[in-house]
Amino acid sequence: MLVEFLRKFPIFSGLNDEEFEHIERISVKRSYQPRMFVFMEGDEREAVFFIKTGLVKAYKIDETGNEQVISLLQSGDMFPHVGFFDQSPYPATVEVVQETELVVIRIADFDKLLIQYPQMTIKVMKVMGKKILDLQERIQGFISKDVHYRLTHALMKLAAEQGVKKGNGIYINFPITNQDFANMVGTSRETINRTLNEMKKKKLISSDRNGIIIHDMSGLNKYTR
To answer: In terms of domains, do 123 and 164 share one?
Structure first.
């Protein structure tokens, strides 16, 4: 049931059973194949999306035309993070990486629901305000770190979210290029090449065409200290 899925999201914490029934009535499911776009940066903001299954990436294009990956989002994530209360255009492009099923709530439908049930507005806005502050703090802390830290953090996050056990290691089972990593952590591809090669020489990781294997999680974790 959609209600049980939506209960997992902090934005809806505090809602009672009747309020969840209203949310379920305005929710629809959509399926996407790899390389499909959910929306493009600058498009009119029409809906908020909740990932039931799959993987998507959010990115922006900088002044030089390069792709800047903001985040990889998976089952249990919602996007855009600002949610329902910002009327500005979508702040980034979201592209599907793996076959994905989304639960979609149109902002217009949600607005009508909040007008009809104003007590829901207070509950949802309190949660969103805290979420945005937490996100700002995490971003500020992340950008102050060096490339080794940022890349290691990205690898460990991917391992936690997408990794599967393979022998004594953890396999991140989808293709991600060095340029993807460079975009994700805000550096050049050459710097990522050097850093990944260093990790490979130390036998912390290895890679193939389909993904990356982390052989020594504790050794890799030293880069984040």
So the answer is: no
